UniProtKB/TrEMBL annotation, chain A:
Residues 360-389, 399-428 form the 4Fe-4S ferredoxin-type domain. This is Ion-translocating oxidoreductase complex subunit C. Its EC number is 7.-.-.-. It comes from Thermospira aquatica. The keyword Iron applies. Its main location: membrane. [4Fe-4S] cluster 2 binds at C379, C408, C411, C414. One of its GO terms (cellular component) is plasma membrane. Its cofactor is [4Fe-4S] cluster. The complex is composed of six subunits: RnfA, RnfB, RnfC, RnfD, RnfE and RnfG. The lineage of its organism: Bacteria, Pseudomonadati, Spirochaetota, Spirochaetia, Brevinematales. [4Fe-4S] cluster 1 binds at C369, C372, C375, C418. It is found in: Cell membrane. GO terms for biological process: electron transport chain.
From TrEMBL, chain B:
The gene is rnfD. This is Ion-translocating oxidoreductase complex subunit D. Signal peptide: none annotated. Part of a membrane-bound complex that couples electron transfer with translocation of ions across the membrane. GO terms for cellular component: plasma membrane. The complex is composed of six subunits: RnfA, RnfB, RnfC, RnfD, RnfE and RnfG. It comes from Thermospira aquatica.
Length: 444, 355
């Protein structure tokens, strides 16, 4: 990396946890196909999909088994060929009582990469419908349906495309590997997105400087091009948050309650770009995703390509788990969700499986706040987390909403730094839910 | 497994890791930073300083133990906060302070100012300041009229440490006044006559005063340590002291008939309890505002009040009073001084509406 390059960063707050990128040098390999997959119908932000198959049906790899319902939703596809053995209700990490389609693996594999479809002559409408067809969602963790993102509301002109390769979460390395191994695919995906949104003038690729090889690789790749630039980012959490990334690279702020499209910006995660490429060029639906399987004491940590619906127990059989661990996290340790049982399947949002040792696990102590104001200092939004948490704790949610309760991005920097170990994010999230419930009741 | 009691325990929540930063670390860091001032106190005021610090610590720890158990919070003496309070309270006493002043003053500070309002994190005023004000009002004779000289001058005459410690608290010696008192009563002429007008002595602490507040040098060492350890931020102490210096320079000469812009700013910031108050009490996290802008306003007001009391008030020293007054204003300051939020700038919102 060139020492003279300007390093971008967001303006306020942030923390620097231990990076623990144990698997940064491990190439992405395919994980074994499990004997049984359980595919939930809610893997995206928005309404759950409607089941299209019934018990006993034979399904082919890539066949649509769940249909999007409503405006913001995404299709679900079978990740393996086989027979549907059950359709059951179960809980995912984020939703309760969701339909799961259980498929017993059998039958043939489909060679997706074998055939290439020409896309250069398609209209932007056709390209978006290919992405929609493939059920692509944001793979950074927010799982917002990508086809909705790619069709901004009328009147919003997108001029800047930012690729999010920051990967500011500790432990996770999958986007780092994507940047190194899938650079041609990502470049093609950039062309596809520019075909869909011809107003895009400038493309940035944001990469944190702890991934020097990725920055060098892309700088070499883009030598002599002025329309696509690599933006080295300071290693600071939450650098990869959409709002922070936009502020770091363009200097602009997304208005509150607004979208990046309001200021002419579109942010896509690099894994999502790869999925867009596969959807358009190979007509391959989103049936597998890369994830980082890691943690101190894991036998075979690495970056694996895993079929959607693979039970986590199957991954544990293949790659081991530490003898003693305090928590199993889906996603990164700062914003991920704890996995309560091993039957939970890998879904579109699972960017990693992280095992945390008892020493590093967060244990709530919930002692009195000493008003040290560290949480104000690290909040990237400029909130007063301690005030919000106190108000939420006392059910004063209207007052909390007045001082920015819903601007909280739940990045966890405040709870990470809090010397009293107050579960600030938990309380703020509780306050949000309570406020919504209250509003809903007021409407009745 | 992040499980909290109460509302946050409704579900599992992020984050799942925590920084190596805890209440104990903060508190014990402050205790470490207070040690140099204590050593300076013993160096200049002898065994008296040791006696005051020891009595204050024992009283504070016992009170904390009793109050913690009475409040069903368990044993809280290990979090270090009561050690800070006891040290600060001791540093705010003159070398000849009798035992009952130390014991009841610190009991008031810990039991009433801190525990009666809910213990750590809920006190409305810095406990050490509360204790100091209590004893200033209850035993005002002891607290304001009886300053001892330092033991250095006696040791130069050939006395050893213990003899000098005895000598400075003998009744015939306790007539010398603190620099600010002399300034209040006799002006600069009085200071020259008493030989108190010496910047170097004021800086290292070789002047009559409370045991922990005279040595600016020792206090600055602790202050820099806390800054390096990132326990405190610079704004309150720096702006507070800066404001006092600025206002003393403007108004300082008025009461001595030399006119505007003739005050001796350096003398004012080196004397009295200003440095100790600014570096260790005004910026006590519990009783200072949260946001940067709030802290700036708070520090400006502190400087203004301190200067006004010193120059035009009834007391020679205004640090404790101004900190107490501003502590009470903190909830109000928190309400009106907030950090600016991401995405709320008028220009941002306007542009969003237009597009």
């Amino acid at each position: 990396m060139d020492k003279k390059q300007k390093i971008f960063t967001f303006k306020r707050g942030g923390v620097h946890p231990h990076e623990n990128k144990l698997t940064a040098a491990q190439p992405i390999v395919n994980a074994d196909v499990p004997p049984l997959v359980r595919i939930p119908m809610a893997q995206h932000l928005g309404a759950p999909a409607k089941v299209l198959v019934s018990v006993g049906d034979e399904v082919k790899e890539g066949q649509r088994i769940g249909e999007a319902t409503g405006m913001i939703s995404a299709h679900i596809h079978a990740s393996v060929s086989g027979v549907v053995t059950a359709i059951e209700k179960a809980n995912t990490l984020t939703a309760k009582q969701i339909d799961f389609v259980v498929i017993k693996t059998g039958g043939s594999f489909h060679n997706w990469v074998g055939e290439k479809f020409p896309w250069e002559n398609l209209s932007s409408q056709q390209l978006v419908s290919l992405v929609q067809e493939a059920g692509v969602v944001g793979l950074g963790g927010a799982t917002f349906p990508t086809h909705v993102k790619l069709s901004p509301p009328p009147g919003k002109v997108v001029e800047t495309l930012i690729l999010n390769g920051a990967e500011c979460e500790p432990y996770l390395t999958i986007d780092h590997r994507m940047l190194l191994e899938k650079s041609q695919e990502i470049l093609t995906a950039i062309e596809i997105v520019r075909r869909i949104l011809p107003t895009i003038k400038k493309v940035y690729i944001g990469i944190e400087i702890n991934k020097e090889d990725a920055i060098d690789h892309w700088t070499a790749l883009l030598a002599g091009r002025s329309d696509i630039t690599v933006a080295p980012l300071k290693t600071r959490y939450p650098q990869g948050g959409e709002k922070q990334l936009i502020q770091a690279i363009t200097g602009k702020e997304v208005p509150t309650k607004g979208l990046p499209a309001d200021i002419g910006v579109l942010v896509e995660n690099v894994s999502t770009m790869n999925a867009i490429y596969e959807a358009v060029v190979h007509h391959k639906p989103l049936i597998e995703r890369g994830l980082t399987y890691t943690g101190k004491g894991v036998a075979k940590p690495g970056n694996y390509k895993v079929r959607i619906g693979t039970p986590i127990s199957h991954l544990i059989e293949s790659y081991g788990k530490p003898e003693k661990f305090a928590a199993m996290i889906s996603g990164g340790p700062m914003m991920g969700l704890e996995i309560p049982d091993e039957n939970i399947p890998v879904v579109k949002s699972t960017s990693g499986i992280v095992f945390l040792s008892p020493q590093e696990d967060y244990k709530v102590e919930d002692r009195p706040c000493i008003r040290c104001a560290k949480c104000l200092a690290v909040c990237p939004i400029g909130l007063m987390p301690t005030e919000l948490a106190k108000l939420a704790d006392n059910f004063l949610v209207e007052e909390a909403a007045g001082i920015g309760l819903f601007d909280c991005i739940e990045c966890g920097a405040c709870a990470y730094i809090c010397p009293s170990k107050i579960p600030l994010v938990g309380l703020i999230r509780y306050g949000k839910e309570f406020y919504k419930r209250k509003q809903a009741q007021a409407k009745k | 497994m992040a499980k909290a009691k109460g509302k946050a325990g409704a579900g599992l929540f992020s984050p799942h890791i925590h920084s190596p930063f805890s209440v104990e670390k903060v508190m014990w860091d402050v205790v470490i930073a207070l040690i140099p001032a204590g050593i300076a106190g013993v160096y200049f005021f002898g065994a008296n300083a040791l006696r005051i610090i020891a009595i204050s610590l024992v009283t504070g720890l016992l009170t904390e133990l009793v109050m913690g158990i009475l409040s069903k919070r368990g044993i809280t003496i290990f979090d270090g906060s009561v050690v800070i309070t006891s040290l600060l309270f001791a540093y705010n006493l003159p070398p000849a302070a009798p035992w009952y002043v130390i014991v009841f003053g610190n009991m008031f500070a810990v039991a009433i100012v801190k525990w009666a309002f809910g213990g750590l994190g809920y006190n409305f005023m810095n406990p050490a300041i509360g204790g100091r004000l209590f004893v200033m009002i209850a035993w005002s004779g002891v607290m304001s009229g009886r300053w001892s000289p330092t033991i250095r001058s006696f040791m130069e005459k050939g006395m050893d440490f213990w003899q000098a410690s005895q000598a400075i608290v003998s009744p015939e010696m306790m007539t010398s006044a603190s620099a600010l008192t002399v300034l209040k009563i006799d002006g600069y002429a009085g200071l020259y006559k008493q030989g108190l007008f010496d910047y170097w002595n004021l800086f290292i602490g070789n002047v009559p005063g409370c045991i922990g507040e005279t040595s600016v040098l020792a206090i600055l060492i602790g202050f820099v340590y806390l800054l390096v350890r990132r326990v405190i931020t610079w704004e309150v102490p720096v702006i507070y002291v800066g404001t006092v210096a600025f206002l003393s320079w403007i108004f300082g000469g008025l009461s001595h008939g030399t006119g505007w812009f003739t005050g001796d700013a350096l003398f004012h910031i080196l004397s009295g309890g200003l440095m100790l108050g600014a570096c260790f009490m005004a910026n006590d996290s519990v009783t200072s505002p949260l946001s940067f802008s709030g802290n700036v306003f708070y520090a400006l007001m502190l400087g203004f009040l301190t200067t006004m009391i010193r120059l035009f008030g009834g007391y020679p020293e205004g640090v404790a009073f101004s900190i107490a007054v501003m502590n009470i204003f903190v909830p109000l300051i928190d309400r009106y001084f907030r950090p600016s939020l991401y995405g709320y700038r008028r220009a941002v919102l306007k542009k969003a509406r237009e597009s």
